[in-house]
Design goal:
The complex is a heterodimer of chains A (114) and B (116).
Chain A lengths: L2 E5 L2 E4 L5 E8 L6 E6 L5 E9 L2 E4 L6 E6 L2 E6 L8 E8 L8 E3 L3 E5 L1
Parallel strand pairs in A: 2-11
Antiparallel strand pairs in A: 1-3, 3-8, 4-5, 4-9, 5-6, 7-8, 9-10, 9-11
Chain B lengths: L2 E3 L4 E5 L4 E3 L2 E3 L4 E8 L5 E7 L5 E3 L5 E5 L4 E6 L8 E9 L9 E2 L3 E6 L1
Parallel strand pairs in B: 2-12
Antiparallel strand pairs in B: 1-4, 3-9, 5-6, 5-10, 7-8, 8-9, 10-11, 10-12
Classes of the chains: A mainly beta (114), B mainly beta (116).
Chain lengths: 114, 116
């Protein structure tokens, strides 16, 4: 089965500090991968998606960046965190073998910027 | 462009009562539709999906949804609510797309509270 792993599960960082969140996928090769953010009381905002190594599409301009150094690895980064970067970050993958664009999700990372 | 509207950001029902969560979509082509559930501090889990095979779709945990093209709706129902159903529910839409552009558009979510 296809599984997404994310770490860390929770993170508390000061304003202005750097960020690196990691997402890895197993059970499939060359999947489309996605980073979403959930701010408190809001829905899912798509931040980035990647169709392959080194290929990143940004959905919204912001303080964050993404990289895909390996087929099954997707990293979300920031050089200097803002208070507004707080939220729940979810990594997702496109389910292989079907045409429906179904996505499967990792457990998420809770980021608090103080 | 596709979009999803979930009516009611918060819904409360009594244990044993009918659950009805509303979702309306907008899509220029026949869509694929999904309902996901999210428990606190967890990722999203697929409840069910509509892929044009049947308009009434049954999912996990006793949930089902009916695709109504004339109403552009895909409401989620469960005949009898259980305490374990308390969670946030997201409706999502996907259009048939070219390779490299597979994305879902999510609604803003509905938080379901079950009253004992």
């Amino acid at each position: 089965s296809q599984t997404i792993h994310q770490w860390p599960a929770t993170l508390v960082q000061p304003v202005g500090s750097p960020l690196s969140l990691e997402c890895t996928v197993e059970g499939t090769s060359n999947p489309n991968l996605y980073w979403y953010r959930q701010a408190a009381g809001r829905g899912l905002q798509l931040l980035f998606y990647s169709v392959g190594i080194g290929q990143i599409s940004s959905e919204v301009p912001q303080n964050l960046s993404a990289s895909r150094p390996q087929d099954r690895q997707f990293i979300l980064s920031s050089k200097k965190l803002l208070l507004s970067d707080s939220g729940f970050y979810l990594c997702a993958g496109l389910l292989a073998g079907g045409p429906y664009n179904e996505q499967f999700f990792g457990p998420g990372t809770r980021l608090t910027v103080l | 462009a596709q979009s999803v509207t979930q009516l009611g950001s918060h819904v409360s029902v009594s244990e044993g009562a009918l659950v009805l969560l509303r979702c309306n979509y907008s899509s220029s082509v026949p869509p694929y539709l999904f309902w996901y559930v999210q428990y606190p501090n967890q990722g999203l889990q697929l409840l069910l999906k509509y892929t044009s095979a049947a308009t009434l779709v049954k999912g996990i945990n006793g949930f089902e949804a009916e695709f109504k093209k004339s109403e552009t709706s895909f409401h989620l129902t469960k005949p009898s609510a259980h305490m374990s159903d308390a969670a946030e529910y997201f409706c999502a839409v996907s259009e048939v797309s070219n390779f490299g552009n597979e994305k879902l558009t999510f609604g803003t979510g509905t938080r379901l509270t079950i009253i004992p």
